[in-house]
Amino acid sequence: MSKLEIGTPGHSGAIRLLMLGSGELGKEVLLEAQRLGVETIAVDRYEGAPAMQVAHRHHVIDMQDAQALRDLVEQEKPDLIVPEIEAISTTTLEELEEAGHNVIPTARATRLTMDREDIRRVVAEDLGLRTSPYAFAGTKEEFLAAVDQIGVPCVVKPVMSSSGKGQSMIRDAERALDAWEYAMAGSRGKAQRVIVEGFVDFDTEITLLTVRHEGGTSFCAPIGHRQEGGDYMESWQPEPLADSVLKECQKMAEQVTDELGGRGLFGVEFFIDGETVYFSELSPRPHDTGMVTMVSQELSEFALHVRAILGLPIPQITQLTPAASHVILASEDGTAPSFSVDPEPLRTPGTTLRLFGKPTTRPGRRMGVALARGESTDQARQRAETVARGVTVSNAES
Ligand code: AMP
Q: What is the radius of gyration, based on Cα positions, of the chain?
């Protein structure tokens, strides 16, 4: 293998990483990149975003604006373009890749995964993997037909949305149109389409962090998580799975990530019902439920992502101890929030806290995460929850 040359940030020869999206996950990726001497540039649509606070420099642009994105890439000439969010002009990313830029993991992966319809069709129809039953709709009439076809209970999601926005469940077919209206209000971008998915009454749902690197594909131990309203509340690692179930998840994750190609870490989500594994969705980048790996693994998901995209080897991934994460959410709209932190739960060994430094709040916005190790995942979950409950978010100016 040839040697990796890393210059000095700010000088010719530096490896320049352009992070498109500057949330808490991007912030951790940039911190890991800086540990390896990489020059980091953070981009988002607002000032003061978490990753901007740790980057060498930053830019505020609308990343869905193709021209603005092209101009920025022209100006910064990055070696690595690393999308952190889905709301990016993916046609521009494809053009940039075509012109020789390195988009992580690939421009096609970012395009397919930004639209639930595209990735679902590739996974279920091209690769033939098991998913929940599904149908798509772009009008009220199609929607009612889709609900009729899938049956109730079913889950409705805008094809373009994240963090559970616009997602709801239909239990009573008579009330189906409420879910349509809700999805339209929570939809991102121009696509007014929804996916209607049959409800999977799963025992557990997991994220399998999957790394494509120069030496092949590696997996982290499965992460269990609990979601409310389509957004994650807590996660823990490892989630115990039968050997056959874990193998099946790994096989499916490898098939999907091979199809998408490129290098980097992916968060592949599955529903598990007894021995049956359903593919749910994936992120071609570190996953929010994977924040637990900041305390559970020697190399976190962020460190693994950076190593993979730089072309460095990924050694055996070992989990150090059972661990958990628990989110800290804001409850109202406001700016310049402050945090009142109870120090007592942080006396417990293996506990830690991350506050993201987001400049504004809104109900349900993730502002921080509590992390804990334990002798068991139950103990770790309880510790992380106690730390999280000890943090109150208030707004100086609301
Ligand atoms: P998603 O945004 O697709 O990851 O959905 C968020 C969460 O909603 C999932 O992690 C599940 O907890 C729940 N969910 C989504 N789709 C389904 C489904 N078809 N059946 C059961 N639960 C679901």
A: 21
